[in-house]
Amino acid sequence: MDKFAAILKRVEQKKEDYDTYGFEKLELSAFNTFFDLAQEYDGLENLYIVSVTVPRVFLGLQSNLYTIDPQTEAIQGVANSHPGLDYKKDNVPQYIRISDVSYQHGHAHIVPIHGKKTPAGSILLHGSRNVIGIFEVTRADHLTEAELFFIRKYVNRIGYNLYNKFLAEQNIQHLKFINNLVADIEHNVIVPNLQYKHYFRKIRKYLNTNKEIETGLDSILDEVKSVSPDLYAKISEIVEEMVVINRSIFDDQEKIERHYKHASLFLETLFRPDHFLFGEYILKKTPCYLWKDIVLPQLEEYSDRFIQQGIVVDHTAKDDKRFDDIVVRVDKGLIAQVVANVFSNAAKYAESVADTSGNSVKKIDCRTSLMEDFFGRGHHGVCFHIFSSGPLINREDAALIFEEGFRLAQRESVEGTGHGLHFVKNVIEVHGGIVGHKAEDTGNEFYFVIPA
Length: 452
Hints:
The chain is α+β, with helices and mostly antiparallel strands.
């Protein structure tokens, strides 16, 4: 049954229900008034007052409204139909208790207020209960069963509106927290992180000074060699060790600085305040070379990891300068993270297969290509492909692999969350592109196409 037919059937059922309920005209007016005022007034306190004053005005009933702390299940009085807010706030009668069903106590009729069972409800409703409040009619012994039935239905309406107001308040608090957190990250992480650039410059200066010292020592050694061969041999050995150490420091410093640039780009891009302000990725597009400026730096970043995993990278693709010719206008930081995600997946999931010669090989290769008229006549696309060897992904799993949280059953032993490819899909689609997967003879190819 499609959505339209299902909802149509439900509407017809509700029509029949209301015919069966047989509510009085005044009771229906009470319903309408409650809904009108619940929408007219903002804030929880106004809803509390509306909830207890509608029965007072339309039915002459005095009532108390209580809410329940979702974590401690402490009951708190929040409104009364006579004095208004905060009545019995800290003095809740003992007979007021959390119950899944209505009950009588003396002259009072007590009705639980239920929230909606939705995924968002986990924010408000801890544990198995979905009771978020309690509504008490203080003198209900004179009410008929039909009138009590109306009260219970009325309380259901309170529950729906109270639940939505709770969620709205909670969402506002969450948004404030997120905005403050982003400001804290910018102030306490991103800005101080920029200071490392200064330290890297100083380290490079010291390393260059070491090179100058090496050159000076070479000149001195030439003089010492003719005077004292033994001393020359000893000093030469020391200088050689120093040169080896200096070269190692140079290499490590370059790796650290490259990783710093990589991490800084990701930090500054992911925690861009506009993302959180507008609730979506806000792109800062700049023209750049897809291969030289984005893919190649990520390939270099992952090169050590590929070596450790015994993965061979297609060096033809890595060194081919033709790819420098393809210019794209993209958010460089976000697309770099897309490429990093697919490289990370390749490092985790690539497996050895037999090549055409029968030799066992674990490999990846990647390339870019121009897709003419891909997005319509005169609107070209640029495709990034990455192939990794291993078991083929079947068509059913391939259709779900870019969905949030999806993981292949045979890969569950590999640490992961199922978020990386979903992130890839989101970022590429925000750029107006597409993502996809193709099963090849000896592995899987993932690709994305973005406007050129």
